[in-house]
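[job 0412] stage=fold_complex status=start
inputs:
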Amino acid sequence: MRLLNASGCLDALAAPDVARTLDVYVTKTVTPLPREGNAPVRIAETDLGMLNAIGLANPGVDAFLAGQLPRLAELGVPVWVSVGGFSCADYVHVAGRVGARDEVEALELNLSCPNVDEVPENVGEVVAAVRSVTAKPLYAKLSAAFADLGATARAAEATGADGLSLVNTVRGLALDERTLQPVLARGAGGLSGPALRPVALAAVHTCFRETGLPIVGMGGVARGRHALELLAAGARDVAVGTALFADPGAAARIRAELEAELAALGFANADNAVGVAHASADSTLDPRSRLEAEKSLHIETNLAG
Amino acid sequence: MLRRERRSVVATEAVGPYTLLRVERGSVDPGNPGQFFMLEAPGRLLPRPMSLALAPTGELAFLIDPVGPGTRALCSVTPGEQVGLLGPLGNGFDLDVGRPLLVGGGIGVAPLPFLSERLGGPPAVLGFRSSWHAEAAELVPNAEVVLEPTYVTDVLPAGHDVLACGPEPMLQAVRRLTPHAQLAWEAPMACGYGACYGCVVELGGELKRLCVEGPVLAAA
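[job 0412] stage=fold_complex status=done
writing structure:
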């Protein structure tokens, strides 16, 4: 198991010591042209998480390759570059240029940013197009907000993705205590933190069943236990996002806590815990009993409604 | 190395509507006036940025206005309770000035007691909404206090090196009068160390992270 940062949750050049607590550093999303991002206010705390609407602020691929990447390579931590765009051609342009660089270990395709108006076309189409311009490992970063996440994950696999990053934020809204107006200048933003945890678990659980791809699990990981649950649901690696904001030492702490959690449950290592949440569902529940359980739940729901 | 420390609360004191939160300093560097700390707000997901108000022996003190859930939680801590803190962060005031004048408005007076101490008690002009809020002026020596509808910019003497902190309209007005003032700005922050890109402000036509480039910026 490797511990990563979630893209956009750490600037390794501003905090190199924090980046060195990770097994992989994932950059903020890089787009073809420089982007200022959205106007402030860009962040808001909610009861069980936070919203952000940064808007893919980045220097653009040329400045990234010339200015940032050489310095990132000096950190001594493998670098994954998050690739973004607003069309298939955008992804191909950035991935082709970034993928040609030796300093880059892998590419993560950000196919699910909730904070821009233009959404990418068909996931499979983008993955296939990028696959044709780079041999680097490709991780498709998906959102639990996709109507059929399983089908989207299968499409990514079929078109050449080497892995999945699950999950991106989901859209949320916060209103000002006094004025009842949206706190974020953009209105809605991406929800992360504890509220995203069960959403991420379900997404990882689904995609583990639907594909054979390795999964980087992320969403509200703040403790070793949270990392363990993502592994159990099917993640091979784990990323930390919002927890890094409150505590730059979060990754090192989570790693230590995870080791204790694994030992307490008798796992020799993290890899042995991957996917264990699926074992009991397959072996102890026969299809008929599962059907009965769903049926009774359906009846109770109807009664309650 | 950026490291979040845990420190015991020594005391909380009411200063008008504000709370002066005093915590044990331990080995934490108080930094320079105008720098800030991220303070863990009990029960909240994200810490809150607070400039250091005073650095008495063995302590760090923060002046906090309870305006939201995080600041209310910070004002409600009790002596002996532990709070997490990260800092000092950002860039403080440049203390190499000839004729310093401190200018503050409302809770923007927060970094001025520490700044005044480091500069040997220069004159100050502080503006507040009410005499209750103006109780915070007791923390700043040699201060002239004005209350709304009088603004600090109505009484600003000429010929000084202005170091200011306050609400944005006040800072904009100070900037128009004294183009070379040093201004301490404020923005919502999730991290305080350049990670979240939440605290951007427009600087020279570009959006810059206040936690990294500021919070004290030259006006010009």
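[job 0412] summary: Residues 132 and 144 of chain B are 15 Å apart (CA to CA).
[job 0412] exit 0
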